[in-house]
Write a structure and sequence with these properties.
This protein has 6 helices and 10 strands, in the order βαβαββαββαβαβαββ. It is of the alpha/beta class. The strands form 2 sheets. An 8-stranded mixed beta sheet has the order 1-2-3-5-7-8-9-10. It has a two-stranded parallel sheet with strand order 4-6. It is globular.
Length: 181
Amino acid sequence: MLAKNPTISSQVVTAKTVEEIHRCSTSIVFQDCTSVEWGTIGQELASRITLQALTFLRCNIGKEFFQGLRSSKYLLRLELVHAWLETEQCNIAEEAVGDITSLKLEELVLSNARDIQMTGCQDVDVLLSHLQNMENLKQLDMPDHFIKELSLSELRVTQIKADGRCTMPTDSQKSVRADQP
């Protein structure tokens, strides 16, 4: 059995790897990992009622993972740091973004543009349309060039971080786009 809140590093992750993680883990970090079983892994993690936080550092995550994770009712924080979705077609990545934003997350961290890579698509428009439906989202941390596109009045977040800098949207800011003076 792996440690209670493990970091799984530099390996091809399998369903068996995830099954060996302590059932009471509240957070799991995947670092430099790949898998061909992302769908099963997502389903297994979604079934964990104590799991509140997932972090992916430099991982290539298949869209199937987020489809499997979609049924999670307890995950509160998702962090994708230099992680990316395997995709060649726009609709595949859009589905993954839809699955991510359907979670009841309170915190979402997307460290760079590759986190939501959608070749030949309107990345920002797709992401924003989904973010606006995240009712529980309290903190959003994402690249500055995406934050500038946000219409803050349409988001319910209380804290926004752009490239590591924290801002708290006030009522007056919520009525203006982030890139306007």
